[in-house]
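Researcher: I'm comparing several assemblies side by side, and this is the next one on my list. It has 503 residues spread over two chains. Same procedure as the others: predict the full complex and return the structure.
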Amino acid sequence: MANDKSSMQLISRGILSENPIFKLALSMCPAVGISTTVMNGFMLGVAVLFVQVFSSITISLFKNLIHPRIRIPTYTLTIATWVTVIDLVLAAYMPEAYAKMGIFVKLIVAFAIITMRLEMFACKESVKDSFWDGLGMGLGFMVGMMAIGFVRELLGSGAILGYDVLGFKPLLFFILPSAGFFVVGLMMAFFNWIEIYYKRSRGLK
Amino acid sequence: MKDMITIVVRLTVSCVLAATVMGLCFIFTSNAKKHNEHIKEQQVMYELLGYKDGAEIPGSLALHEVYRYVISSSEKQSIGYVVPQGHGEETGFIFVNIDLNGVLIETKPIALSESEVLEAETRNKAVLAAVGPGYEVSFADQTIVVTDNGKRIAYLLGGKFQGFKTFVSVMLAVDPAFTLIGMEILEHEEDPGLGAEIEQDYFKNQFKGKPFEALKTINVVKAPIPADYLKALNGKVSEGDILKFREQYKDHDIYALTGATISSRAVSNGVKGIVTKFSYRVNVLDKVLKEQQLAVSF
C-alpha cells in the first residue's frame, strides 16, 4: 500500500480529519489526567511529538527487519528507548524544562496513539512519509491537549496560561480528572457538529 | 520451531540494541545530571537563607553537613551522627554514637574527604565500619548547619512526611531559636489545582516567621485568608508591610487551602514534627559535643 498523500496533507490529516484525541479517541488517559492547564497540555504535546517522530522514523527504517509476529513488542521497545533517551537528555542538559516536563515524558511509553501510528503507518511507508505522519499526529495531539487544557483551566481555575483572567474560580470540579471526560466528550461532539454542518452546507454527505 | 528461534533471536537482538542505546545515553548524561541536581540543591539552600536570584553569597558563610543514622542491634538502638571536624583542607569527620537517653556511647574518627562524604554508599560503609559488626545502620536524615564567621545562623532541615497521596519532601530553614525562616516543597504528588497549591507562595509563606512556641502547636483553620494578608503573602506589598503582617499573624494557625484541607494539615503537621524533633536532637547532640570537648566545625 503506497502512500499517495503529500507531506502537507499528512500533517493536516493528523491535526484535523484524524485528530488523535477528537477523532481517533486514543490516549484518553493522559488527555484526561494531565490536561488541567494549557501549559501542561503543551508540555505533554511537545514530548509526544518528539517521541512520535523519532519512533516513526526508527520503525520505518527497520521495517523490513521486524518479524511480523513480534512487531508490537518491538514497537514498545522502540518507544521505551526513545522515551528514556529523551528523559535522560532533558534531565542532563535542560534542567529547567525537565523540572516541568519530567513526569510527562515518562508517561509516554504507554500511549496508544504512538503504537497505533507505528502499526498503521510507519511499518508500511517510507521514512519521509513516516516523518510527516509522525509530525502531524504529534501536532494533532498537542493541539487537542491544549484545547482541552484551555477549557479546563478557564472553567476550573479562571486562568489562562497561569494568568488570572476571570478573577474567580467558576467550577473547581473541572480540575479533577473525572471532569476531563466531560470536556473531551463535549468537545468531540462540538467538533463533529462543526464538521457535519460544514459538509451539509457544501452539499456533501 | 524455526519461527520460534527467529523470534527469540530477533527479540533478543532488539533488546540488546535498545539496552545499548539507553546505556550509552545514561553514561553520557549521568555526570551532567548529578551536577544539575547538586546545583539545584545548593540553590534551594541559599534561597531559603535569603540569597535570592544570584545575590552574592558572603565568603564567611559556611555550610556544615550533619548526617544522622539509626544504629540498631537485636537488643538496643542508638543514634549515630557524622559531624565534620574543623573546616578547611585537612579535615575528617567524627562519628558520634548517642543512646536513646542522650548519653554518649562512643566517638570515632571517620577518614572521609568532603566529596566522599556526599556519596551515600561510601558514607554508609564508613559508618558501618565505625560501629563494628553486629549492628545495622540506616541513614535517617541530613541536617545542614549554617555558620557565618563561625557563629551559627541557621539550620537547614530536610524531611519527608505523608501527604494526601504519597510523600511530600520538604526543606526547612530555621534559625538557632527554631523560628522558621523558610520552607521549600521539593517533591510531592498532590492533585494539581488542589493539594498541589502547597507549593504556592501564599501557602508556603504562611509558615515564614512562625516562632518555635507557635510551631509546637500549629494547626490549620478552615477559613478564607483575609484579603490584605493574602496580598502580603503573595509579596504584593512593601517589604516593611510584609514583616508587619508576619508579626501580626505569627501565632495564628495556618489557613487551609480551599478543597485541600488534608494536604494543608499534612504539611503543617509535618513541619511541626520535623522542627520539634530536630530541636530535641540538636540539644542532645550539642550537650554531648560540649561535654566531650569535641572539636567540630560549627
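Model: For your comparison table: The interface with chain B takes residues 36-37, 40, 65-67, 69-70, 73-74, 77-78, 80-81, 84-85, 88-89, 91-93, 95, 156-157, 172, 175-176 of chain A (CB under 8 Å).
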